[in-house]
Amino acid sequence: MQGTVLDINEAAQTGLIKCDEGDRYEFSLAIWGGNIPPKTLDKVEFFVENGEVKHIAPLGQVQSSAPSQPNLAATMPNKPVETSPLAVVSLIFGILGIFIFGSLIAIICGHIARSNIRQSQGKLSGDGMALAGLITGYIGMVLFIGTLVMYAIIGAAEFGY
Fold this sequence. Notes:
Layout: E1 2-9, E2 14-19, E3 24-28, E4 43-49, E5 52-58, E6 82-83, H1 85-99, H2 103-119, E7 124-125, H3 127-158
Parallel strand pairs: 6-7
Antiparallel strand pairs: 1-2, 1-4, 2-3, 4-5
Helix pairs in contact: 1-2, 1-3, 2-3
């Protein structure tokens, strides 16, 4: 299989890879087959047996003597990925912001959530929710400011300014 290194934990001597089919696997740095230590976002080839990574090396460096393994992606469940709570908050307050209030909260939480998701290296999901919260938050903010401007214009017209 081929995939990408998502994380390296030097203290635990482990790493996390995501295969091209989307499954995630933890591996021991002791089985690394490359000349230099792995880094985050390295492209790799690896073999899995019974849900455990048996051999991993940089893409193109797997020796032909390594056994060919069947794709276990269909039988192995994905490790659960946590949804960013701030992305959920952003979406909820973005929707409320269009009708009632909450646009500023949606905008702040949406930006923080998207930043956290990008920095989590695949451990957090919810980027689409955060983006939807940002969009609805900005729409709500424009509607709120537009309403204030409209009231100011009407008030000025009432009093002859």
